[in-house]
Here is the input.
Amino acid sequence: MVTMREREKEFKKQIIADAAYSLLSKKPYESVTVDDIAKAAGCGKGTLYQYFENKDHILAYLVSVDVKHLCEEIEEKCLKNPDIQEAIYNYMLLHYNYYQANHQIFSSWLRRSLDAGIQPEWEQDVLDMREEKLQMMTKVLARGIKNQSLIEVDPYQLARLLENIFRDITYSLLDKEQEEEDLKKVMELVKMVISNGIFLNQSLRDAKQ
Amino acid sequence: MVTMREREKEFKKQIIADAAYSLLSKKPYESVTVDDIAKAAGCGKGTLYQYFENKDHILAYLVSVDVKHLCEEIEEKCLKNPDIQEAIYNYMLLHYNYYQANHQIFSSWLRRSLDAGIQPEWEQDVLDMREEKLQMMTKVLARGIKNQSLIEVDPYQLARLLENIFRDITYSLLDKEQEEEDLKKVMELVKMVISNGIFLNQSLRDAKQ
Amino acid sequence: MVTMREREKEFKKQIIADAAYSLLSKKPYESVTVDDIAKAAGCGKGTLYQYFENKDHILAYLVSVDVKHLCEEIEEKCLKNPDIQEAIYNYMLLHYNYYQANHQIFSSWLRRSLDAGIQPEWEQDVLDMREEKLQMMTKVLARGIKNQSLIEVDPYQLARLLENIFRDITYSLLDKEQEEEDLKKVMELVKMVISNGIFLNQSLRDAKQ
Amino acid sequence: MVTMREREKEFKKQIIADAAYSLLSKKPYESVTVDDIAKAAGCGKGTLYQYFENKDHILAYLVSVDVKHLCEEIEEKCLKNPDIQEAIYNYMLLHYNYYQANHQIFSSWLRRSLDAGIQPEWEQDVLDMREEKLQMMTKVLARGIKNQSLIEVDPYQLARLLENIFRDITYSLLDKEQEEEDLKKVMELVKMVISNGIFLNQSLRDAKQ
DNA sequence: CATGAATGAGGATTCATTCAT
DNA sequence: AATGAATGAATCCTCATTCAT
Here is the structure.
């Protein structure tokens, strides 16, 4: 059973996390002070430390929640999707949206993580989820290979490549004029590239048989 | 004419830049102190400020030099390359190598840049060079489209997509076991994906005619 | 008359004091948080403030209770003891035991006290008790001087000196190997030193007469 | 050879140490901020950290210098003193003066040290010096025992007891009116106590022979 | 009464930049 | 020109105390 107290505490944690999220999405970790977050959350500095052990912990929490969310969506829209082609497009689109929204946070986390300051426990949490994500997509791709919808390559490697292709272009963030309508164009482009690339076209499939 | 003095000054600047490069390649900007750089360059802290206005300036200089180098290589190995397919592979490989080596620095620069602290002048410098790079590749791709080696898509968009595909996978940096031999495998994979994807295969080209 | 309420209140105060005692005996005042004490007492932080005005107040209370206890024992085993020599040994032994157990607390109190942060009222309380303690021993010593068991010196000064001799050796606390069996040895040593020193030996006493 | 620079640096370190000393002699470590010390030394906060790694380091340095000084004086006035009785008085008087002046600092150091926060290296330094001090006095006492000036007891234990007897009475620090002229009285008292106590008196020595 | 979440003053420490030598 | 000592703004974090429930 979840007590009233626990619900309330979780709620407040969410408020702080939201405030932190909105700041850390826009500015790098180092430029956001604990005070900034507290102010944005409408509470005192000390309050943060009742919900999070650390400034790093806040970041770790945000990343963890984000990745978990991404995982769930991938399970829903890719793993459970019988249409392999659609599953693949979704996989890439989800990543695009994820990085579009969370690039700054993700990048901050990576930096802190590699710079050896983050609790191994928190770090592992995110790494595990990423692996789970890759494994799910590996299954999808393996299925596609089995029923000859896809070219025969290592499905794990392919999952990683696809994960990468649609990472948002950090570079492009500098050109702020585009953004919105850009997605559609690029999506069309990628679809075309990928379709003709990773899917065996009918003629070749015929040849194989 | 270049005086003796200027040569000497340029030489010392290079020494400092080299020292900074080796440090900033491994650790994020924020974790590298001006003192670290001075120590590595074998000079006093104050000396740095005679060759660079700023800590940021050092970073900007490094990025600028790196990107210029990348540009030159792209001009050589892509723009001037008559074999379109090879030009495209080179384009991606060069980017892979570039990001592999300079990811940390590039990422640091992006961060500082977006955080609005960097002199617009230095920033523009790098942006211009990136644009130049894209324009060169756009020409290559346009040529390929014209002679029907490539599918018909916006060549500029395609250049950007390709630039992106081979960005090194920051995520993967966490799995340190792989790295070296990984490149070949992934390169093979990408070649296959791309080949079958963006190049019209013979049967389709025949059909078009 | 003491109401039921008051009894209950006093009882809870004791629980908190006991918890505080066990913590403050081991660690310096500054390293023990109010939260630690509350946790150890099995109650909320706020509750403490219903029984004590202050963190300092808790400390003052502990010291006051301890010193009162020491006073009572000195009255019993020294003042009321007809055997002067035994009374003196007891005096020192009681101090030894007292400081052995309460050094940390006593030292913390002294620090806070000198640092001018403690309510004068609480401070005076302890000072008075110390004076009372000294006065009792002064009486004992005066008696000893009168009946020629002791050398003729200012009994008050002597009481203070004796109080001091058997203060536990803080320094020695660092050598943790000794402790237990140490006491006996040192006690023997002190007895010898003191006996031959402050007690007129028979031959001299004979001579005096 | 000692360069000009090093001399100057050592000089500045002394200035800071002196400032710290005058503050830490009067108030406990915790009540003295790094800022206070900097102000007292007439320099900025950051400057301190060029000469000392830590706030703790400052304290450790002060204690170390003090104890070294005490050691030197004990070597001079006790170990090298042919008159055993005088050597013993000096031993106690030196300790009295030492603790009188440095009690606050010493106590602060002990606290930090036991609270496990201090670098083991610094800690050992002081412990070693204390042992050296005890060993010197042990030699003196052993000599005294050998030529039958002193009672036969473990000279090491006795050295420790004497070290303790003349520790200044922290308690007494609260009675500020006395202090100065107090010393003489108490010194007289102790001399008498000790003389009659640890020195065999003539009659007994005769008996032994 | 009891609680524990909220608070914010206060402190140690770091580091880019300046400037006297 | 070269140096590196001096600086203090900026930052994270702790904890005694209060107060609404």
About this structure: Chain B has two domains: 1-52, 55-208.
